[in-house]
Amino acid sequence: MANKGTSLSAPPLVVDCDGTLVFTDTLHEAALRVLRDKPLAVFNIPFWLMKGKAYLKQKLATCSEFDPSSLPYNQALIAWLQEQQAAGRSLILCTAADQMIAQAVAQHLGIFKSVIASDGEQNIAGRHKAAVLVQQFGEKGFDYVGNAQPDLQVWQHARRAIVVNASESLERAAAACCEVEKIFPKPVIGLSVWRRALRLHQWMKNCLLFVPILAAHQIPDAMRLSDLLLAFLSFSLCASAVYLANDLLDLDSDRQHPRKKFRPFASGQLSVVTGVLLAPLFLIASLCLGMQIPGQFVGWLIFYFGLTCAYSLLLKRVVLIDCLTLAVLYTVRLIAGASAASMSLSFWLLAFAVFLFLSLAFVKRYAELEIQLLSGKEKTHGRGYFTSDASLVQTLGVTAGFSAVLVLALYLNSEAVVKLYKAPEIIWGAVPVMLFWISWMWMQAHRGKMHDDPLVFALKDKASLSAGIVFALVLLAGAGGWPW
Protein backbone atom coordinates (compact mmCIF):
# COMPACT_ATOMS: atom_id res chain seq x y z
CA MET A 1 0.00 0.00 0.00
CA ALA A 2 1.42 3.34 -1.04
CA ASN A 3 0.98 6.71 0.61
CA LYS A 4 2.11 9.38 -1.79
CA GLY A 5 1.98 13.14 -1.59
CA THR A 6 -0.60 15.17 -3.42
CA SER A 7 0.25 17.81 -5.99
CA LEU A 8 -1.65 20.22 -8.17
CA SER A 9 -1.23 17.82 -11.11
CA ALA A 10 -2.88 14.93 -9.28
CA PRO A 11 -5.96 13.52 -11.01
CA PRO A 12 -9.46 14.15 -9.60
CA LEU A 13 -10.45 12.30 -6.46
CA VAL A 14 -13.85 10.67 -7.03
CA VAL A 15 -15.79 9.79 -3.87
CA ASP A 16 -18.71 7.39 -3.41
CA CYS A 17 -21.48 8.34 -0.96
CA ASP A 18 -23.43 5.42 0.56
CA GLY A 19 -21.30 3.33 2.91
CA THR A 20 -18.26 5.46 2.13
CA LEU A 21 -18.84 9.13 2.78
CA VAL A 22 -21.74 8.27 5.10
CA PHE A 23 -22.19 5.22 7.34
CA THR A 24 -25.57 4.38 5.87
CA ASP A 25 -27.50 3.81 2.65
CA THR A 26 -29.58 6.82 1.61
CA LEU A 27 -31.88 4.69 -0.56
CA HIS A 28 -32.86 2.46 2.34
CA GLU A 29 -33.39 5.48 4.58
CA ALA A 30 -35.55 7.15 1.91
CA ALA A 31 -37.75 4.05 1.80
CA LEU A 32 -38.11 4.15 5.60
CA ARG A 33 -39.07 7.82 5.51
CA VAL A 34 -41.77 7.05 2.95
CA LEU A 35 -43.04 4.19 5.14
CA ARG A 36 -43.17 6.55 8.12
CA ASP A 37 -44.58 9.67 6.44
CA LYS A 38 -46.64 8.24 3.57
CA PRO A 39 -47.39 4.57 4.35
CA LEU A 40 -49.76 4.11 1.40
CA ALA A 41 -47.02 5.20 -1.02
CA VAL A 42 -45.10 2.04 -0.13
CA PHE A 43 -47.48 0.06 -2.37
CA ASN A 44 -46.18 2.07 -5.34
CA ILE A 45 -42.60 0.86 -4.83
CA PRO A 46 -42.97 -2.31 -7.00
CA PHE A 47 -44.39 -0.22 -9.86
CA TRP A 48 -41.62 2.34 -9.54
CA LEU A 49 -39.03 -0.44 -9.54
CA MET A 50 -40.48 -1.83 -12.77
CA LYS A 51 -39.40 1.43 -14.43
CA GLY A 52 -35.84 0.96 -13.22
CA LYS A 53 -33.83 1.38 -10.06
CA ALA A 54 -32.91 4.96 -10.95
CA TYR A 55 -36.59 5.87 -11.28
CA LEU A 56 -37.31 4.23 -7.92
CA LYS A 57 -34.57 6.28 -6.26
CA GLN A 58 -35.91 9.48 -7.77
CA LYS A 59 -39.48 8.84 -6.60
CA LEU A 60 -38.39 7.89 -3.07
CA ALA A 61 -36.19 10.98 -2.86
CA THR A 62 -39.05 13.28 -3.83
CA CYS A 63 -41.63 11.62 -1.57
CA SER A 64 -40.14 12.72 1.74
CA GLU A 65 -38.10 15.52 3.27
CA PHE A 66 -34.36 14.94 3.52
CA ASP A 67 -31.94 16.68 5.87
CA PRO A 68 -28.31 16.10 4.79
CA SER A 69 -26.97 17.53 8.03
CA SER A 70 -28.43 14.62 10.00
CA LEU A 71 -26.55 11.86 8.16
CA PRO A 72 -23.84 9.90 10.03
CA TYR A 73 -20.79 11.10 8.10
CA ASN A 74 -17.43 9.36 8.06
CA GLN A 75 -15.55 12.13 9.83
CA ALA A 76 -12.12 10.51 9.40
CA LEU A 77 -12.63 10.32 5.64
CA ILE A 78 -13.98 13.87 5.44
CA ALA A 79 -10.94 15.20 7.33
CA TRP A 80 -8.65 13.49 4.81
CA LEU A 81 -10.70 14.78 1.86
CA GLN A 82 -10.41 18.31 3.23
CA GLU A 83 -6.64 17.87 3.33
CA GLN A 84 -6.66 16.72 -0.29
CA GLN A 85 -8.78 19.71 -1.30
CA ALA A 86 -6.47 22.11 0.55
CA ALA A 87 -3.57 20.61 -1.42
CA GLY A 88 -5.30 21.65 -4.64
CA ARG A 89 -7.04 18.43 -5.60
CA SER A 90 -10.48 18.39 -7.26
CA LEU A 91 -13.08 16.34 -5.38
CA ILE A 92 -15.98 14.76 -7.27
CA LEU A 93 -18.98 13.17 -5.56
CA CYS A 94 -20.04 10.23 -7.73
CA THR A 95 -22.81 8.10 -6.31
CA ALA A 96 -25.65 5.78 -7.23
CA ALA A 97 -27.89 7.84 -4.95
CA ASP A 98 -30.43 10.11 -6.57
CA GLN A 99 -29.29 13.50 -7.85
CA MET A 100 -31.42 15.37 -5.31
CA ILE A 101 -29.84 13.58 -2.36
CA ALA A 102 -26.31 13.81 -3.79
CA GLN A 103 -26.61 17.55 -4.43
CA ALA A 104 -27.91 18.11 -0.90
CA VAL A 105 -24.96 16.19 0.60
CA ALA A 106 -22.44 18.04 -1.58
CA GLN A 107 -23.92 21.41 -0.70
CA HIS A 108 -23.89 20.57 3.01
CA LEU A 109 -20.20 19.53 3.01
CA GLY A 110 -19.03 22.21 0.59
CA ILE A 111 -15.90 20.34 -0.55
CA PHE A 112 -16.97 18.89 -3.89
CA LYS A 113 -16.31 20.58 -7.23
CA SER A 114 -19.08 18.67 -9.03
CA VAL A 115 -21.64 15.89 -8.56
CA ILE A 116 -22.37 12.82 -10.65
CA ALA A 117 -25.46 10.87 -9.55
CA SER A 118 -28.45 8.84 -10.70
CA ASP A 119 -30.98 11.02 -12.50
CA GLY A 120 -34.13 8.93 -12.71
CA GLU A 121 -33.05 7.29 -15.98
CA GLN A 122 -29.48 6.05 -15.50
CA ASN A 123 -28.38 4.30 -12.32
CA ILE A 124 -24.79 5.43 -11.67
CA ALA A 125 -23.45 2.23 -10.13
CA GLY A 126 -20.91 -0.44 -10.98
CA ARG A 127 -19.99 -0.55 -14.70
CA HIS A 128 -22.26 2.41 -15.47
CA LYS A 129 -20.35 4.52 -12.96
CA ALA A 130 -17.05 3.31 -14.40
CA ALA A 131 -18.14 4.18 -17.96
CA VAL A 132 -19.20 7.70 -16.96
CA LEU A 133 -15.93 8.34 -15.12
CA VAL A 134 -13.77 6.99 -17.96
CA GLN A 135 -15.68 9.11 -20.46
CA GLN A 136 -15.16 12.24 -18.35
CA PHE A 137 -11.63 11.71 -17.00
CA GLY A 138 -10.14 8.99 -19.20
CA GLU A 139 -8.74 5.56 -18.42
CA LYS A 140 -6.67 5.69 -15.21
CA GLY A 141 -7.40 9.41 -15.08
CA PHE A 142 -8.91 9.48 -11.61
CA ASP A 143 -8.58 8.01 -8.13
CA TYR A 144 -11.66 6.46 -6.59
CA VAL A 145 -12.91 6.19 -3.00
CA GLY A 146 -15.31 3.30 -2.46
CA ASN A 147 -16.41 0.58 -0.08
CA ALA A 148 -18.39 -2.19 -1.79
CA GLN A 149 -18.15 -5.05 -4.29
CA PRO A 150 -19.60 -3.03 -7.25
CA ASP A 151 -16.76 -0.52 -6.76
CA LEU A 152 -14.31 -3.13 -8.06
CA GLN A 153 -15.64 -2.39 -11.55
CA VAL A 154 -14.66 1.24 -11.03
CA TRP A 155 -11.25 0.52 -9.50
CA GLN A 156 -10.35 -1.49 -12.61
CA HIS A 157 -10.33 1.79 -14.51
CA ALA A 158 -8.94 4.02 -11.75
CA ARG A 159 -5.34 5.06 -11.15
CA ARG A 160 -5.50 4.43 -7.41
CA ALA A 161 -7.99 3.10 -4.90
CA ILE A 162 -8.92 4.47 -1.52
CA VAL A 163 -10.76 1.69 0.30
CA VAL A 164 -13.23 2.61 3.05
CA ASN A 165 -15.19 0.41 5.50
CA ALA A 166 -14.46 -2.73 3.51
CA SER A 167 -13.74 -6.34 4.38
CA GLU A 168 -10.20 -7.71 4.09
CA SER A 169 -11.23 -9.73 1.03
CA LEU A 170 -12.46 -6.59 -0.73
CA GLU A 171 -9.26 -4.78 0.19
CA ARG A 172 -7.26 -7.57 -1.49
CA ALA A 173 -9.54 -7.50 -4.54
CA ALA A 174 -9.11 -3.73 -4.82
CA ALA A 175 -5.31 -4.13 -4.65
CA ALA A 176 -5.55 -6.58 -7.56
CA CYS A 177 -7.35 -3.92 -9.64
CA CYS A 178 -5.05 -0.95 -9.02
CA GLU A 179 -2.66 0.58 -6.55
CA VAL A 180 -4.24 1.15 -3.12
CA GLU A 181 -3.32 4.59 -1.84
CA LYS A 182 -5.07 4.51 1.53
CA ILE A 183 -7.33 2.31 3.63
CA PHE A 184 -9.89 3.51 6.15
CA PRO A 185 -10.55 0.40 8.27
CA LYS A 186 -14.04 -0.89 8.86
CA PRO A 187 -15.22 -0.08 12.42
CA VAL A 188 -15.41 -3.09 14.70
CA ILE A 189 -18.95 -3.92 15.80
CA GLY A 190 -18.73 -5.43 19.27
CA LEU A 191 -21.28 -7.02 21.56
CA SER A 192 -22.05 -3.65 23.14
CA VAL A 193 -23.42 -2.40 19.81
CA TRP A 194 -25.83 -5.34 19.56
CA ARG A 195 -26.77 -4.97 23.22
CA ARG A 196 -27.71 -1.34 22.64
CA ALA A 197 -29.54 -2.09 19.39
CA LEU A 198 -31.67 -4.80 21.00
CA ARG A 199 -32.01 -2.72 24.20
CA LEU A 200 -31.32 -5.74 26.40
CA HIS A 201 -31.34 -3.48 29.48
CA GLN A 202 -34.96 -2.64 28.64
CA TRP A 203 -35.91 -6.27 29.20
CA MET A 204 -35.98 -5.40 32.92
CA LYS A 205 -39.29 -3.64 32.27
CA ASN A 206 -40.84 -7.02 31.55
CA CYS A 207 -40.34 -8.00 35.18
CA LEU A 208 -43.69 -6.22 35.52
CA LEU A 209 -45.18 -9.50 34.30
CA PHE A 210 -44.39 -10.98 37.73
CA VAL A 211 -45.96 -8.13 39.72
CA PRO A 212 -49.59 -9.41 39.75
CA ILE A 213 -48.67 -12.76 41.26
CA LEU A 214 -46.37 -11.11 43.82
CA ALA A 215 -48.98 -8.50 44.75
CA ALA A 216 -51.51 -11.28 45.35
CA HIS A 217 -49.01 -13.08 47.64
CA GLN A 218 -49.21 -16.22 45.54
CA ILE A 219 -46.12 -18.36 45.21
CA PRO A 220 -46.29 -19.78 41.67
CA ASP A 221 -46.12 -23.52 41.16
CA ALA A 222 -43.67 -24.99 38.65
CA MET A 223 -46.16 -24.76 35.77
CA ARG A 224 -47.10 -21.15 36.47
CA LEU A 225 -43.47 -20.16 36.92
CA SER A 226 -42.57 -21.83 33.62
CA ASP A 227 -45.35 -19.95 31.85
CA LEU A 228 -44.27 -16.66 33.41
CA LEU A 229 -40.66 -17.19 32.34
CA LEU A 230 -41.82 -17.98 28.80
CA ALA A 231 -44.00 -14.87 28.93
CA PHE A 232 -41.00 -12.80 30.04
CA LEU A 233 -38.87 -14.06 27.16
CA SER A 234 -41.72 -13.64 24.67
CA PHE A 235 -42.38 -10.03 25.73
CA SER A 236 -38.65 -9.29 25.72
CA LEU A 237 -38.19 -10.53 22.15
CA CYS A 238 -41.25 -8.57 21.08
CA ALA A 239 -39.91 -5.46 22.80
CA SER A 240 -36.57 -5.82 20.98
CA ALA A 241 -38.41 -6.14 17.67
CA VAL A 242 -40.32 -2.98 18.47
CA TYR A 243 -37.18 -1.10 19.52
CA LEU A 244 -35.49 -2.09 16.26
CA ALA A 245 -38.46 -0.88 14.22
CA ASN A 246 -38.79 2.29 16.29
CA ASP A 247 -35.12 3.18 15.85
CA LEU A 248 -35.39 2.68 12.10
CA LEU A 249 -38.45 4.90 11.80
CA ASP A 250 -37.02 7.52 14.16
CA LEU A 251 -33.58 8.01 12.59
CA ASP A 252 -34.03 11.71 11.82
CA SER A 253 -35.26 12.59 15.31
CA ASP A 254 -32.61 10.47 17.04
CA ARG A 255 -29.83 12.18 15.09
CA GLN A 256 -30.95 15.56 16.40
CA HIS A 257 -30.86 14.34 20.01
CA PRO A 258 -27.57 14.77 21.95
CA ARG A 259 -27.63 11.19 23.29
CA LYS A 260 -29.85 9.24 20.91
CA LYS A 261 -27.64 10.17 17.94
CA PHE A 262 -25.16 7.56 19.18
CA ARG A 263 -27.65 4.71 18.87
CA PRO A 264 -26.39 1.94 16.52
CA PHE A 265 -28.73 2.72 13.61
CA ALA A 266 -28.67 6.50 13.98
CA SER A 267 -24.86 6.52 14.03
CA GLY A 268 -24.59 4.05 11.16
CA GLN A 269 -22.85 1.36 13.23
CA LEU A 270 -25.53 -1.08 12.07
CA SER A 271 -27.10 -0.96 8.62
CA VAL A 272 -30.76 -0.27 8.03
CA VAL A 273 -31.06 -3.63 6.26
CA THR A 274 -29.86 -5.42 9.39
CA GLY A 275 -32.67 -3.88 11.41
CA VAL A 276 -35.27 -4.59 8.74
CA LEU A 277 -34.28 -8.27 8.74
CA LEU A 278 -33.94 -8.73 12.50
CA ALA A 279 -37.18 -7.04 13.59
CA PRO A 280 -39.57 -9.58 11.97
CA LEU A 281 -37.37 -12.50 13.08
CA PHE A 282 -37.59 -11.40 16.72
CA LEU A 283 -41.33 -10.85 16.38
CA ILE A 284 -41.89 -14.34 14.93
CA ALA A 285 -39.83 -15.89 17.74
CA SER A 286 -41.86 -13.90 20.27
CA LEU A 287 -45.18 -15.10 18.86
CA CYS A 288 -43.99 -18.71 18.73
CA LEU A 289 -43.14 -18.58 22.44
CA GLY A 290 -46.34 -16.71 23.29
CA MET A 291 -48.50 -19.38 21.68
CA GLN A 292 -47.07 -21.94 24.12
CA ILE A 293 -48.68 -20.06 27.02
CA PRO A 294 -52.32 -20.88 27.84
CA GLY A 295 -55.06 -18.30 28.24
CA GLN A 296 -55.23 -14.92 26.55
CA PHE A 297 -51.53 -14.09 26.82
CA VAL A 298 -50.82 -14.16 23.08
CA GLY A 299 -53.79 -11.84 22.51
CA TRP A 300 -52.31 -9.27 24.90
CA LEU A 301 -48.92 -9.75 23.26
CA ILE A 302 -50.40 -8.97 19.85
CA PHE A 303 -52.24 -5.97 21.33
CA TYR A 304 -48.97 -4.73 22.83
CA PHE A 305 -47.19 -5.07 19.50
CA GLY A 306 -49.99 -3.39 17.57
CA LEU A 307 -50.14 -0.48 20.00
CA THR A 308 -46.37 -0.01 19.91
CA CYS A 309 -46.47 0.06 16.11
CA ALA A 310 -49.25 2.66 16.23
CA TYR A 311 -47.15 4.63 18.72
CA SER A 312 -44.05 4.52 16.51
CA LEU A 313 -45.90 5.44 13.32
CA LEU A 314 -48.37 8.02 14.59
CA LEU A 315 -49.25 8.31 18.28
CA LYS A 316 -45.80 9.49 19.42
CA ARG A 317 -46.42 12.67 17.40
CA VAL A 318 -49.76 13.46 19.06
CA VAL A 319 -49.62 15.67 22.16
CA LEU A 320 -50.72 13.92 25.41
CA ILE A 321 -51.89 10.83 23.51
CA ASP A 322 -48.25 9.77 23.33
CA CYS A 323 -47.88 9.75 27.14
CA LEU A 324 -51.21 8.02 27.64
CA THR A 325 -50.11 5.35 25.17
CA LEU A 326 -46.83 4.79 27.03
CA ALA A 327 -48.77 4.37 30.28
CA VAL A 328 -51.04 1.79 28.63
CA LEU A 329 -48.04 -0.11 27.23
CA TYR A 330 -46.56 -0.45 30.71
CA THR A 331 -49.92 -1.49 32.16
CA VAL A 332 -50.44 -4.12 29.47
CA ARG A 333 -47.43 -5.94 30.87
CA LEU A 334 -49.26 -6.33 34.18
CA ILE A 335 -52.38 -7.59 32.45
CA ALA A 336 -50.37 -10.04 30.32
CA GLY A 337 -48.56 -11.28 33.44
CA ALA A 338 -51.86 -11.93 35.17
CA SER A 339 -53.10 -13.79 32.09
CA ALA A 340 -49.94 -15.92 31.92
CA ALA A 341 -50.38 -16.81 35.59
CA SER A 342 -54.09 -17.59 35.03
CA MET A 343 -55.25 -15.11 37.64
CA SER A 344 -57.42 -11.99 37.73
CA LEU A 345 -55.90 -8.54 38.08
CA SER A 346 -56.79 -6.42 41.09
CA PHE A 347 -58.63 -3.15 40.41
CA TRP A 348 -56.37 -1.39 42.90
CA LEU A 349 -53.20 -2.56 41.20
CA LEU A 350 -54.54 -1.58 37.80
CA ALA A 351 -55.55 1.92 38.93
CA PHE A 352 -52.27 2.46 40.79
CA ALA A 353 -50.26 1.33 37.76
CA VAL A 354 -52.06 3.57 35.26
CA PHE A 355 -51.40 6.75 37.28
CA LEU A 356 -47.82 5.76 38.15
CA PHE A 357 -46.87 4.88 34.57
CA LEU A 358 -48.55 8.03 33.26
CA SER A 359 -46.36 10.06 35.61
CA LEU A 360 -43.25 8.24 34.35
CA ALA A 361 -44.31 8.84 30.74
CA PHE A 362 -44.56 12.56 31.48
CA VAL A 363 -41.12 12.40 33.14
CA LYS A 364 -39.70 10.97 29.92
CA ARG A 365 -41.27 13.67 27.77
CA TYR A 366 -40.35 16.44 30.19
CA ALA A 367 -36.70 15.36 30.16
CA GLU A 368 -36.68 15.47 26.35
CA LEU A 369 -38.25 18.93 26.33
CA GLU A 370 -35.64 20.23 28.78
CA ILE A 371 -32.83 18.97 26.53
CA GLN A 372 -34.38 20.61 23.48
CA LEU A 373 -34.91 23.82 25.46
CA LEU A 374 -31.24 23.93 26.41
CA SER A 375 -30.39 23.46 22.72
CA GLY A 376 -32.33 26.61 21.91
CA LYS A 377 -35.10 24.86 19.99
CA GLU A 378 -38.75 25.90 20.13
CA LYS A 379 -40.21 22.57 19.00
CA THR A 380 -39.14 18.96 19.40
CA HIS A 381 -38.42 17.08 16.20
CA GLY A 382 -40.91 14.29 15.50
CA ARG A 383 -43.08 15.23 18.49
CA GLY A 384 -46.08 17.50 18.88
CA TYR A 385 -44.67 19.50 21.80
CA PHE A 386 -43.17 22.96 22.03
CA THR A 387 -40.37 23.45 24.52
CA SER A 388 -42.60 26.02 26.23
CA ASP A 389 -44.90 23.11 27.17
CA ALA A 390 -42.32 21.77 29.63
CA SER A 391 -43.81 23.42 32.72
CA LEU A 392 -47.31 22.13 31.92
CA VAL A 393 -45.99 18.61 31.25
CA GLN A 394 -44.24 18.78 34.61
CA THR A 395 -47.47 19.75 36.36
CA LEU A 396 -49.44 16.97 34.68
CA GLY A 397 -46.76 14.42 35.56
CA VAL A 398 -46.49 15.37 39.21
CA THR A 399 -50.27 15.31 39.53
CA ALA A 400 -50.45 11.82 37.99
CA GLY A 401 -47.71 10.60 40.33
CA PHE A 402 -49.43 11.86 43.46
CA SER A 403 -52.72 10.40 42.19
CA ALA A 404 -51.00 7.01 42.17
CA VAL A 405 -50.02 7.55 45.81
CA LEU A 406 -53.63 8.50 46.60
CA VAL A 407 -54.86 5.24 45.05
CA LEU A 408 -52.30 3.40 47.20
CA ALA A 409 -53.59 5.14 50.33
CA LEU A 410 -57.20 4.27 49.51
CA TYR A 411 -56.17 0.66 48.87
CA LEU A 412 -54.62 0.48 52.33
CA ASN A 413 -58.04 1.26 53.78
CA SER A 414 -59.77 -1.52 51.83
CA GLU A 415 -60.79 -5.01 52.95
CA ALA A 416 -58.27 -6.56 50.55
CA VAL A 417 -55.39 -5.34 52.71
CA VAL A 418 -56.82 -6.99 55.82
CA LYS A 419 -56.98 -10.31 53.99
CA LEU A 420 -53.45 -10.13 52.60
CA TYR A 421 -51.50 -8.54 55.47
CA LYS A 422 -51.25 -9.53 59.10
CA ALA A 423 -50.29 -6.00 60.15
CA PRO A 424 -52.02 -3.61 57.72
CA GLU A 425 -50.94 -0.58 59.75
CA ILE A 426 -47.31 -1.24 58.82
CA ILE A 427 -48.20 -0.98 55.14
CA TRP A 428 -48.93 2.72 55.62
CA GLY A 429 -45.17 3.15 55.61
CA ALA A 430 -45.31 2.54 51.84
CA VAL A 431 -47.12 5.87 51.32
CA PRO A 432 -44.27 8.21 52.39
CA VAL A 433 -41.82 6.02 50.47
CA MET A 434 -43.84 6.46 47.27
CA LEU A 435 -44.27 10.19 47.92
CA PHE A 436 -40.50 10.51 48.26
CA TRP A 437 -39.74 8.51 45.12
CA ILE A 438 -42.23 10.35 42.90
CA SER A 439 -40.91 13.70 44.16
CA TRP A 440 -37.29 12.56 43.76
CA MET A 441 -37.81 11.47 40.15
CA TRP A 442 -39.33 14.80 39.23
CA MET A 443 -36.63 16.66 41.11
CA GLN A 444 -33.96 14.86 39.06
CA ALA A 445 -35.84 15.56 35.84
CA HIS A 446 -36.10 19.24 36.79
CA ARG A 447 -32.33 19.33 37.38
CA GLY A 448 -31.67 17.81 33.96
CA LYS A 449 -30.31 14.54 35.33
CA MET A 450 -33.07 12.26 34.02
CA HIS A 451 -32.25 9.46 31.57
CA ASP A 452 -34.24 9.08 28.33
CA ASP A 453 -36.11 6.27 30.08
CA PRO A 454 -37.13 6.88 33.73
CA LEU A 455 -37.26 3.17 34.58
CA VAL A 456 -33.70 2.71 33.36
CA PHE A 457 -32.73 5.73 35.45
CA ALA A 458 -34.44 4.25 38.51
CA LEU A 459 -32.56 0.95 38.15
CA LYS A 460 -29.24 2.82 38.24
CA ASP A 461 -30.12 5.52 40.74
CA LYS A 462 -29.07 4.81 44.35
CA ALA A 463 -31.90 6.81 45.90
CA SER A 464 -34.49 5.02 43.76
CA LEU A 465 -33.02 1.60 44.55
CA SER A 466 -32.98 2.45 48.26
CA ALA A 467 -36.62 3.53 48.08
CA GLY A 468 -37.48 0.27 46.35
CA ILE A 469 -35.76 -1.78 49.03
CA VAL A 470 -37.54 0.11 51.82
CA PHE A 471 -40.86 -0.29 50.00
CA ALA A 472 -40.33 -4.06 49.73
CA LEU A 473 -39.30 -4.35 53.40
CA VAL A 474 -42.43 -2.49 54.47
CA LEU A 475 -44.61 -4.90 52.50
CA LEU A 476 -42.78 -7.91 53.91
CA ALA A 477 -43.11 -6.60 57.44
CA GLY A 478 -46.81 -5.99 56.92
CA ALA A 479 -47.29 -9.49 55.55
CA GLY A 480 -45.40 -11.09 58.46
CA GLY A 481 -46.98 -8.99 61.18
CA TRP A 482 -45.49 -7.65 64.39
CA PRO A 483 -42.85 -9.96 65.98
CA TRP A 484 -44.37 -9.39 69.46
Indicate the multimeric state. single chain
Q: Helices and strands: which structural class?
A: alpha/beta
Number of strands: 6
* Amino-to-carboxy terminus distance: 83 Å
CATH overall fold name of the largest domain: Rossmann fold
Number of domains: 3
Q: Uncertain spans, ≥5 residues at pLDDT below 50?
A: 1-8
Strand residue percentage: 5-15%
Sheet of most strands: 6 strands, parallel
CATH class of the largest domain: Alpha Beta
* Secondary-structure arrangement, i.e. CATH architecture of the largest domain: 3-Layer(aba) Sandwich
Mean pLDDT level: 90
Summed up, what is this model?
Helix content is 58%, strand content 6%. The chain has 484 residues and is an alpha/beta fold.
Written account of the structure:
The chain is built from 22 helices and 6 strands. The protein is of the alpha/beta class and 484 residues long. It folds into 3 domains: 13-184, 3-Layer(aba) Sandwich (Rossmann fold), CATH 3.40.50; 190-345, Orthogonal Bundle (Tetracycline Repressor, domain 2), CATH 1.10.357; 354-484, no CATH class. It has a 6-stranded parallel β-sheet, with helices on both faces. Helix 7 links the parallel strand 4 and strand 5 (160-164). Helix 11 (222-249) runs antiparallel to helix 15 and helix 17 packs antiparallel against helix 20 (430-446). It is elongated, with a radius of gyration of 28 Å.
